[in-house]
Amino acid sequence: MSQIHVTTTINGDATEFLCEPEETLLDVLRDRLGLTGSKEGCGTGDCGACSVTVDGRLVCSCLMLGAEAQGARVETIEGMADGDDLHPLQQTFLDHAGLQCGICTPGILVAAKSLLERNPAPSEEEVRYWLAGNLCRCTGYDKIVRAVMAAADDMRRAS
Amino acid sequence: MRYEAPDSIEGAVGLLARTPGACHVLAGGTDLLVRLRSETLEPETILDIKRIPGMHEITPEDGGWRIGAAVSGAQINEHDGLCADWPGVAEAVGLIGSTQIQGRATLAGNLCNASPAADSVPAMVAAGALARIAGPDGTRDVPVAEVPTGPGKTSLDTGEFIASIFLPARPERSGDAYLRFIPRTEMDIAVVGCAVSLTLDADSTVDSARVALGAVGPTVVEVETAAEALVGTQVREGAQQQLATVCSAAARPIDDKRGTEHFRTHVAGVLARRAAAIAYARAKGDRA
Ligand SMILES: Cc1cc2nc3c(=O)[nH]c(=O)nc-3n(C[C@H](O)[C@H](O)[C@H](O)COP(=O)(O)OP(=O)(O)OC[C@H]3O[C@@H](n4cnc5c(N)ncnc54)[C@H](O)[C@@H]3O)c2cc1C
Ligand code: FES
Ligand code: FES
Question: Could you give the number of structural domains in chain B?
Fold first, then answer.
């Protein structure tokens, strides 16, 4: 079995890796590149803990092969803060207690960021629908939704 | 396992026809990767069609729309022209999974996965969509309804794959709609799905109609008696009742924990009348 050589961009950095044909992008990120922020909750597309964007599109990295990332632009949770400066979403999740155990949090942050890039002023309903593929067993979602709405407010005010 | 990503239709067909052992087409992967992981599928080769030029494009053709086999649900719902012409198809594909799944899931993948509950399939059948199948002898166009032959089975031959889906020109005064019943509000598999597409004449009477049901049999069911119940009417109460009766009669659902046979049969009729009312309103120019 020969490994596949993949050239891609991850969080703005040109990145190369070798992977097995059946390896998922999530496995590559975590096990080969040390980017363990993306979590595996289910491995079957149901929980969203593995959410990343690929060429600007929100996807489950567990449902994509590493080999499919050839030539793509991948953004993960590791690229969200700017050095020590948290992204407004990360800050509002802290302020509003939008996380408890934290397993779902990286996926939810990546998903919420992708929503706010498309829709800077989402309604509560829009936030809930957008995040329907991100499961959280701890918070009951309410604080998550409030944190996203608050970040949207902050970002609109800042721009 | 091998991973192949050819850059032409001919290359893909050649690999599909000549590769020894099981070779599976990979589009969005939202079904295929789940099956790979559960090891219900152990292919020798995965053939990724996403690097073939044109696979990601939605192009106008003969007044209708040609949708490449790698176009995602999200892309379809961002396309104003396509959504204006075929709102029912767009809403059906838009119901598939979450935002993340929408970023990848394709119409052709939904069709070839051949689940009886596939959401976009009844809508494509009602729309009269054609699948363009590429194979060793060139391409052929077949009605979408002829692709699935049973749960997990398709009529595609060795060496063939779907290169695109064609939604025909939408006639004047036409509308379509898709509704499904699920126990939750999001992220669930259809217990019953129903699509209606109809065209009106100048005085708002139904001139032609197509009705398709999902999840009430081993494959999608086109209900011809339902079309007859609508043609010549203005989709008022009597016609809606007749439509519901024939749709319930056409349903041959299974009985399981997600819905009894009795319930699914009843819901097939209820969804049909509601979808017909929406399609009718859209055909009259009401874009709700
Ligand atoms: C969390 C989750 C939720 C889901 N929710 C829904 C839902 O609500 N409704 C629903 O209908 N489905 C649902 N699905 C199933 C799936 O997302 C859809 O069936 C989707 O449309 C499949 O498209 P794909 O491009 O990802 O297919 P893939 O996984 O790439 O392929 C599916 C099958 O079709 C074959 N195939 C794909 N493209 C072609 C082609 N062009 N020619 C020939 N064969 C091809 C593949 O070999 C494979 O057997 C869900 C899946 C997940 C993981
Ligand atoms: S790990 Fe990918 S969706 Fe759960
Ligand atoms: S904080 Fe524990 S799963 Fe969401």
Answer: 2
Ligand 1 mean position, distance from CA B61 (Å): 25
pTM (2 d.p.): 0.96
Ligand 1 midpoint to CA B140 (Å): 22
Alpha helices in A3-141 (DSSP H): 25-27, 88-95, 105-118, 124-130
- Alpha-carbon span B230 to B236, nearest angstrom: 9
What chain B residue is nearest to A55 in terms of C-alpha separation? B103
Which of the following CATH numbers is that of domain A4-79: 3.40.50.620, 3.30.565.10, 3.10.20.30, 3.40.50.1110? Answer: 3.10.20.30
Q: Which of A117, A127, A69 is nearest to B104 (CA)?
A: A69
Residues B84 and B102 in one domain: yes
Residue-number span of the structural domain to which B154 is assigned: 2-48+57-167
The reply to whether B87 and B122 lie within a common domain is yes
Residues of B in contact with A131 (CB under 8 A): 99
pLDDT digits (tens, 9 = 90+) for B241-279: 999 999 999 999 888 888 889 999 999 999 999 999 999
* All residues at 6 or more sequence positions from B88 whose CB lies less than 8 Å from its CB, including other chains: B123, B126, B127, B175, B176, B177, B178, B195, B196, B197, B275, B279, B282
Q: What is the least distance, in Å, from the CA of A39 to any CA of chain B? A: 15
Give, to the nearest 10 degrees, the angle between helix B120-127 and helix B87-94: 170
B72–A63 C-beta distance less than 8 A: no
User: Are the C-beta atoms of B213 and B276 separated by less than 8 Å?
Assistant: no
* Cα gap A70→A5, rounded to integer Å: 9
Instruction: Provide the CATH topology of domain A88-158.
Output: DNA polymerase; domain 1 (1.10.150)
